[in-house]
Amino acid sequence: MGKIIVVTSGKGGVGKTTSSASLATGLARRGFQVAVLDFDVGLRNLDLIMGCERRVVYDFVNVIQGDATLHQALIRDKRVENLYILPASQTKDKEALRIDGVEKVLLELSERFDYVICDSPAGIEHGALAAMYFADEAVVVTNPEVSSVRDSDRVLGLLQSKTKKAKEGQNIKEHLLLTRYDPERVSRGEMLSVGDVEEILAIPLLGVVPESKAVLSASNAGEPVILDETSDAGQAYTDAVLRLLGEDVPHRFLAPVKKGFFARIFGG
Amino acid sequence: MGIFSYFRSKKNTAEVAKNRLQIIVAHERAQAGGYDFLPQLRHELLQVVQKYVHVELENIRIDVNRDGDCEVLEFNVLLPDKITK
Fold first, then answer.
1. By three-state DSSP, how is residue A105 classified?
2. Cα A127 to chain center, whole Å?
3. How many whole angstroms separate alpha carbon B46 and alpha carbon B50?
4. Sign, Cα dihedral of A163, A195, A235, A221
5. Helix, strand, coil percentages, rounded to 5, for chain A
């Protein structure tokens, strides 16, 4: 049985889809069979971030309603072997993600894949609850910013009360993924530090992804940023994947990049 | 960042953010463990109390406290300084 991992946050725009795409791609590159699912019915975007938007024929809701088989709906990634994408429906209601239908799909996927990554929609409504309900582990994507941290705490509360594991008296393994981190601003006291966020949310840190121009470039091109191996964000995701697999990798990109003499005097 | 920003006064807003978050998160965690009916109960309690004394809603506090296995539902009604009928 494969592991089901939900990527969630509560707040929108913090990097759930970017993180889902990169974590899924990273796991597949390590040789695992991986499926990544978009739960954001009506606002699908994982297909764009993964660069397969023109190959979508069937979607998640089609599979749940029996209009297509999983085999027909899964899109095989062209860059990385063993990586498949299941897009969300763009036209159906959010309620179309019936819990029993989601369970059936996830059960079938977890028999075939080592990892099933569920990209949650923002909010704490039906779609977000459906994405987290069957999860074994959760990656909580957070920005070092008050509203994001507060929403993450709220989502942690839901993970501990509204999921199948919670109802069976078990715990979901939680991971904190801090994204859009700017060490320079942290050092000036303008941004919550990784230590601050860890202290408030009190869950283990999976990784810190620095604010990076590479993320936008990657989404422009439809390539998960983890494939940009020269970028800081790409490397940070690669480290996070290793930690997800249980490896002990030291955290990078936590300190400001040292500037030269002239940059310090004249700004830059 | 450069020679000019050096003279700008710096406020540590991150620290402010952290303090605010710690308070609100602790508050919301305490509430999340409670029951859905508490706001309704609070309103009905207000109506009952107002039959006798005029108090505002903000002067009625309901807390659920956990003490080991035991849960305590606690009402606090702050009466006005002088009860005028």
1. helix
2. 15
3. 6
4. positive
5. 45, 15, 40
Do residue A266 and residue B29 have CB atoms under 8 angstroms apart? no
Q: Are the C-beta atoms of A128 and A99 separated by less than 8 Å?
A: no
Task: Extract the tokens encoding A106.
Answer: 């996830």
What was the pLDDT predicted at A267? 60
- Residue of A149, A161, A176 to mutate, testing the B interface (most B Cβ within 10 Å of its Cβ): A149
Looking only at the bridges linking them, the beta strands covering A115-119 and A3-8 are parallel
- Put simply, whether B14 touches A (Cβ < 8 Å) is yes
Cα-Cα-Cα-Cα dihedral of A86, A40, A117, A205, to 10°? 160
Ramachandran quadrant class, B67 (left: phi over 0; alpha: psi -120 to 50; beta: rest)? beta
Cβ proximity of B59 and B77 under 8 Å: yes
* The CA-based dihedral angle spanning residues A107, A113, A114, A116, taken in that order and rounded to the nearest 10 degrees: -60
B6 pLDDT more than 70: no
In the chain, the amino acid numbered B41 is L
Q: Which residues of A touch B12 (CB under 8 A)?
A: 189
Residue range A247-263: average pLDDT?
Answer: 85
Distance from CA of A195 to the nearest CA of B (A): 10
DSSP helix/strand/coil, A38: strand
Greatest C-alpha distance within chain B: 68
User: What is the ipTM, given to two decimal places?
Assistant: 0.85
Using the structure block, give the residue that is written with the tokens 């807003």.
B13
Strands, E assignment, A59-98:
75-76, 83-86
Tokens of A85: 């994408």
Taking the model in full, what pTM does it have? 0.84
CA dist., res. A196 & res. A43, Å (int): 32
CA–CA separation, A4 vs B59, rounded Å? 47
How far is residue A227 from each of residues A31, A50, A197, A218, A222, measured CA to CA in Å? 15, 11, 28, 9, 11
| Triad A249, A251, A256: Cα angle to 5° | 155
Tokens representing A191 are 């941004």
CA A48 to chain centroid, in Å, comes to 15
